[in-house]
Specification:
It contains 3 helices and 7 strands, in the order E-H-E-E-E-H-E-H-E-E. It has about 150 residues and is an alpha+beta fold. The chain has a single domain, classed as 3-Layer(aba) Sandwich (Aminopeptidase), CATH 3.40.630.30. Strands 1-2-3-4-5-7-6 form a 7-stranded mixed sheet, with helices on both faces. The longest helix has 15 residues. The termini are close together.
């Protein structure tokens, strides 16, 4: 696990799904209507959403869902979806800070696997975070090429 910690300058806290929409819109769904940022699984039981902040400014988001992947093994799997950092704040460790917070929470809940469909252009980031690639590249229509990636938590 990485060891990024919250600092006086940056913090991580739980936010609502709707609070993720402005960052999702800018980074993940540019040019699409804001409604494209409302994911169908955002309000599923057990889901939670985190944000990295400086003061009250939201900089990074990530959403986590109890959603087992059929090709992966684990008794308690969570899915990461909608991970994004505002462009001017990328490369400063805010995503790792948010993911560390999520991993701590998931581990405390007894989860043993975190997975995501990572955009190929972001796969290097997830590899640096200790995730592994599984299977061939695949296309998500309207978004682009992806890889299934995962990290064992226990």
């Amino acid at each position: 696990m990485t060891t990024q910690k919250a600092t006086p300058e940056f913090s991580v806290r739980e936010i609502s799904a709707r609070e993720t929409w402005p960052v999702r819109s800018v980074v993940l769904r540019p040019g699409q209507p804001l409604s494209a940022c409302d994911y169908d699984i955002d309000s599923m039981p057990g889901a939670f959403h985190l944000g990295s902040f400086t003061g009250e400014q939201l900089l990074t988001i990530g959403s986590f869902y109890p959603d087992p992947h059929p090709d992966l093994t684990g008794s308690c799997q969570y899915r990461l979806r909608g991970m994004a950092t505002l462009p001017d704040w990328q490369g400063r460790g805010l995503g790792f800070l948010l993911l560390d917070s999520a991993l701590q929470r998931l581990t405390e809940q007894g989860c043993d696997l975190l997975w995501c469909n990572a955009r190929v252009i972001a796969a290097g980031y997830y590899l640096k975070f200790g995730m592994q690639r599984s299977g061939p590249e695949f296309e998500i229509e309207g978004i682009g090429p992806h890889w299934l990636m995962f990290r064992q938590l226990s």
